[in-house]
Amino acid sequence: MTVEVSRRRLLGAVGAAGATGVVLGAAGGAAGYAAAGDGPAGGTALSAVGSASAPFRGAHQAGIVQPLQARGHLIAFDLTPGTGRKEAIALLRRWSAVAEALMAGKPAGDGDTGVALDAGPCALTVTFGFGASFFDRTGLVDRRPVQLEPLPAFSADRLDPRRSHGDLWVQIGADDALVAFHALRAIQREAGAGARPRWQMNGFNRSPGATAHPMTARNLMGQIDGTGNPKPAEPDFDRRIFVAPGGAQPWMTGGSYAVVRRIRMLLDDWEKLPLAKQEQVIGRRKSDGAPLTGGGETTELDLDRTGPDGRLVVPGNAHARITAPEQNGGAAMLRRPFSYHDGIDPDGTPDAGLLFIAWQADPLKGFVPVQRKLDRGDALSPFLRHEASGLFAVPGGPGDGEYVGQRLLEA
Fold first, then answer.
1. Helices (H), strands (E): how many in the chain?
2. What residues contact residue 25 under an 8 Å CB cut-off, 6+ apart?
3. Is 225 annotated as catalytic?
4. Which one is catalytic: 176, 225, 304, 400?
5. Model confidence pLDDT, tens digit, residues 366-379
6. Which regions span the lipid bilayer (predicted)?
7. Where are the domains of the chain?
8. What are the tens digits of pLDDT across the range 5-58?
9. Whether pLDDT at 318 is above 70
10. What is the rounded CA–CA span in Å between residue 180 and residue 102?
11. 20 exposed, middle or buried (CB, 10 Å; 0-12, 13-18, 19+)?
């Protein structure tokens, strides 16, 4: 049965001006959800936000190129003592089955909690990755990619080992908080006795339809964040973000590497800066994200332009200058973060910032060289503190009949 999303229902859900940005993915998700017979009110059409869905199977795992979601959970697991390759296979089978069902808007098996019973898929994605230690624990050291070598230390690091690394990593994102939480609980439950949570982080972004038209998200500093992201339409996008065939580890073909950092923003200090100084630190206007050299948000930075005083318009230590691909030999990452706020410290400072997630085909050519340059003199660094870190190999998407990671575990 095909479910049609009515224009009146859609506009009521997301606002007339914002509808264009979300309707493109609506029909497929709504139809898939209704076909399962689980739609609210016996098949009533869902709004565009509820019906949007992402595919579980394909060349790449979901949660990498999809638009930012409103809610997110990041969770790392360690395999329990005595758990090896056989038990890891069973775990990945269970996780894959649950993720595929939930991403289609279906219940998570017989033990479903009913938390998301009234909702559709809500653009849910569940993404799985392997940390360096996973290969030791499963006897697969010879299949560990060299790209999983530990990240170097940086001067802004204040890393908490209890909230860093892990054997397994799961990224969950959705446009509804209950749908995201439902997936988190299902993943935790299916871990069973074979894996225990090591750390968990919760994040958020702006909700779909909250702006008059689709736009790049803002972070908790109020800056438009993500303008320089590589775009899937660019001819070299796949080469930069995904592992190409023919590599040393064939099981990573179509996969990517995720650098995960919990970056606290020192908001009290940042908010004391005048607007003009904030813009000098970033190298862009706060109002619309345009370069200080003029134009709109997507206008290229003119890094050579000087002002009447002879100084560079975009300062030499501006964040936008240091991170520009042309300043880093073309190094690029697809940043797909969540903001977080975990309360107020005893001294009254907010524990808030960015759950930084960067995707790339090779972190040794993406994140590492860029972060090294930032470490040597980024004007934004005094307002940031890196408190947790992880690096994970995220294999390609499963094919028909496969579970995530099967080509690694059963090759």
1. 13, 9
2. 48, 52, 53, 123
3. yes
4. 225
5. 999 999 999 999 99
6. none
7. 1-52
8. 333 333 333 333 333 333 333 333 333 333 334 444 455 678 889 999 999 999
9. yes
10. 10
11. exposed
